[in-house]
Amino acid sequence: MSGTALAVVLISAFFHTAWNFFLKRSENKIVFTWCFLGASLLIYSPFCYAYWPLESIPTAGWLCILATGCCHFFYFRFVAASYKYGDFSIVYPVQRGSGPLLIPIIAVTILGETLSVTGVAGIALVIIGIYILHLRAFSLASLLEPLAFLRGKATILALGAGGVNGIASVIDKVGVAHVFPMVYFYTFISLAWLLLSFHVLANHRREIRREWTSNWMPILAAGFLYMLTYLLILFVLQFSKVSYVSAVREISIVLSAMVGIFLLGEKKGPQKLWGALLICLGVILIGFSR
Question: The whole model's pTM is what?
Answer without folding.
Answer: 0.85
